[in-house]
Amino acid sequence: MVDESIQATAQADARAQTGGIGGRFVWPALLRKLERTNPGYDV
Q1: How far apart are CA 22 and CA 15, in angstroms?
Q2: Cα–Cα distance, 14 to 29 (Å, whole number)
Q3: What percent of the chain stands above pLDDT 70?
Q4: Euclidean distance between CA atoms 16 and 10, whole angstroms
Q5: For the chain, what percentages of helix, strand and coil (3-state, to nearest 5) are there?
Q6: In terms of Cα–Cα distance, which of 14, 12, 37, 8 is closest to 26?
Q7: Cβ-count burial of 40 within 10 angstroms (0-12 exposed, 13-18 middle, 19+ buried)?
Q8: Cα–Cα dist 35/43, whole Å
Q9: Could you tell me the pLDDT band of residue 2, with boundaries at 50, 70 and 90?
Q10: How far apart are CA 34 and CA 28, in angstroms?
């Protein structure tokens, strides 16, 4: 139950910080990291 509470709080905090756009906010950074670590990756 404590883990669920912590996870729910973290998710609510992330939504507040990103204005609810979470994935759209993080995805470009993840793609840049992937390109740096594995140039020429195939999607």
Answers
A1: 7
A2: 16
A3: 86
A4: 10
A5: 75, 0, 25
A6: 14
A7: exposed
A8: 11
A9: low
A10: 10
| pTM score of the predicted model | 0.44
CA dist., res. 7 & res. 33, Å (int): 25
Predicted confidence at residue 1, as pLDDT, reads: 64
Compute, in degrees rounded to 10, the torsion defined by CA atoms 25, 27, 28, 30: 130
| Inter-CA distances, 36 with 25, 26, 28, 33, 42, Å | 19, 16, 12, 5, 13
Q: Are 41 and 33 in contact (CB under 8 A)?
A: no
